[in-house]
């Protein structure tokens, strides 16, 4: 797949934009590249996201990988600060795991190599 | 971030394909039925051949070239071909795919036929082999990219080259277009930042301008034409009303609360990528498509226009993109801007050119959705002024001329509006 590195950085960009737009003050990002996949970990401290919002977040990200959407529109990811493109992020990843405990929200996005 | 809690019947992939299959089946029955009624199969066969060997440059209405029956049979064949590809490659039937399918069958009434679309698919297939990616990942771009199909017909049948070289050269140019359109269209998104729904129209406009300029440098002139069907057929109007009511009934069947929850769709701005099938479900999406189709027909009848090939292309494109970003709330300001400008400039509202400009102007719906009614109206006004002037640049070889104009308008307006926006 072309532009693999750029796609990963744009996923990070889009997620960071979403976090910053929703009032995040402190967070970590960790990227782990492996032979067959890339995992991106986001940790938000002092999370104020309620259960409904987290459910919406999961619904938006937890769609099937849609390579045809990714192939055409991936360059729009992380481009705009007016509204989020989480659907695009969802179309570019294979798995999402979201956990919240005691004000710490953890999101793991997994993208298998094509 | 908004998400409607979707409560609707689960539709399998096959069922979604069957819903779309209704369109080419209806077209085929209608096209053959008209010919049976007229008791003239020779005219149907000749009409199909006439459509295939016509140069198809903007505006070439297949209803005028081959007759009603042949135009509908051509649209049906294009529809079956594309649905076969979607089924073969097991693509997920999402909003983008519905938009692509509807756009392609709409333009099969003015510009696209099996002869001039296949080389573009072939070029796209070769590109994916070259890049070692799956064809199904690029098939949607290729479907939209058939916007440049007229150049293949123009070269092959437009008497601009000797016959022995025209046909192979036309096919080679088509393959070349298919080969380069995927990276080109992706790159063009950045110009308008997703605020022009017909992005391929913009990419095709750029590519068409380059190709036309090359031809003109070699003293080969490509000029737009105007071959338009001028009589309203109430049978066609009836068929379209039937199909759009069918979509609404399907929407109601899938989501029985569709009347109550229909306005959920208005919450979305419509900027690329806004897939209503994911956001509000298939029920509301199909219902929205049907409503938008009926509104288009009502508008055309109100201004005493003719529902011919180009107008059907406009209507089906609006209907298709009503699964992928368009709804009444974000389309209305744009349309109002076009309407006001046409009155001020004294354009004939009932003319086919004016009607399709208005219908296709909804490519800018995300601007109204994101920046409000005022900016939406301004965008509509600018769109009309540009679309009436940019066709000459590419000589009419880009069927999505409004997508080209829309891209320029969006790329021009968005940075200016953003610059004056207060944090």
UniProtKB/TrEMBL annotation, chain A:
Species per Swiss-Prot/TrEMBL record: Vallitalea pronyensis
Protein's name according to its UniProt entry: Uncharacterized protein
Automatic annotation (TrEMBL), chain B:
Stretches assigned to coiled coil: none
InterPro entries in alphabetical order: DUF1576 (IPR011470)
Pfam families: DUF1576
Keyword Zinc appears in the UniProt entry: no
Keywords, sorted A to Z: Membrane, Transmembrane, Transmembrane helix
Transmembrane segments: 17-37, 71-89, 95-122, 134-152, 164-184, 196-215, 235-255, 276-301, 307-324, 331-347, 367-387, 399-417
Keyword Isomerase: no
Identification of the protein by name: DUF1576 domain-containing protein
Organism: Vallitalea pronyensis
């Amino acid at each position: 797949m072309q532009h693999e590195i750029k796609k990963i950085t744009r996923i990070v960009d889009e997620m960071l934009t979403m976090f910053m737009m929703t009032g995040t003050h402190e967070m970590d990002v960790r990227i782990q590249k492996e032979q067959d996949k890339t995992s991106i970990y986001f940790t938000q401290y002092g999370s104020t996201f309620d259960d409904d919002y987290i459910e919406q977040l999961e619904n938006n990200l937890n769609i099937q990988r849609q390579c045809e959407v990714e192939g055409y529109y991936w360059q729009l990811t992380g481009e705009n600060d007016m509204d989020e493109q989480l659907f695009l992020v969802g179309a570019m990843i294979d798995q999402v795991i979201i956990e919240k405990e005691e004000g710490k929200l953890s999101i793991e996005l997994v993208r298998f190599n094509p | 971030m908004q998400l409607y809690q979707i409560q609707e019947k689960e539709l399998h992939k096959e069922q979604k394909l069957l819903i779309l299959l209704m369109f080419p089946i209806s077209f085929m029955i209608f096209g053959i039925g008209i010919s049976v009624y007229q008791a003239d199969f020779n005219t149907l066969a000749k009409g199909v051949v006439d459509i295939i060997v016509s140069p198809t440059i903007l505006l070439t209405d297949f209803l005028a070239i081959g007759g009603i029956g042949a135009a509908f049979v051509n649209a049906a064949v294009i529809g079956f071909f594309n649905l076969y590809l979607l089924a073969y490659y097991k693509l997920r039937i999402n909003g983008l795919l519905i938009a692509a399918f509807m756009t392609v069958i709409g333009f099969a009434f003015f510009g696209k036929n099996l002869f001039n679309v296949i080389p573009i698919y072939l070029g796209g297939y070769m590109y994916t082999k070259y890049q070692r990616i799956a064809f199904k990942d690029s098939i949607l771009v290729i479907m939209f990219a058939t916007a440049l199909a007229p150049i293949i017909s123009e070269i092959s049948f437009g008497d601009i080259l000797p016959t022995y070289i025209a046909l192979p050269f036309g096919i080679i140019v088509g393959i070349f277009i298919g080969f380069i359109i995927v990276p080109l269209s992706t790159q063009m998104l950045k110009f308008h930042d997703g605020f022009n729904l017909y992005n391929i129209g913009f990419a095709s406009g750029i590519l068409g301008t380059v190709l036309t300029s090359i031809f003109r440098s070699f003293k080969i002139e490509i000029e737009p034409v105007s071959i338009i069907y001028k009589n309203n057929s109430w049978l066609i109007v009836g068929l379209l009303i039937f199909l759009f009511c069918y979509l609404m009934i399907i929407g109601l069947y899938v989501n029985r609360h569709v009347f109550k929850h229909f306005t959920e769709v208005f919450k979305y701005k419509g900027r690329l990528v806004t897939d209503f099938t994911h956001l509000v479900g298939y029920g509301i999406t199909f219902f929205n498509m049907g409503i938008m189709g009926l509104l288009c027909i009502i508008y055309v009848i109100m201004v005493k226009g003719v529902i011919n090939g180009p107008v059907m292309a406009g209507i089906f494109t609006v209907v298709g993109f009503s699964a992928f970003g368009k709804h009444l709330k974000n389309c209305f300001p744009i349309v109002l801007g076009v309407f006001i400008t046409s009155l001020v400039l004294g354009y004939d509202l009932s003319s086919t050119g004016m009607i399709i400009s208005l219908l296709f102007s909804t490519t800018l719906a995300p601007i109204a959705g994101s920046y409000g009614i005022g900016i939406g109206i301004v965008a509509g006004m600018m769109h009309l002024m540009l679309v009436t002037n940019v066709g000459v640049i590419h000589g009419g070889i880009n069927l999505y001329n409004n997508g080209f104009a829309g891209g320029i308008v969006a790329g021009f307006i968005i940075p200016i509006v953003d610059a004056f926006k207060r944090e």
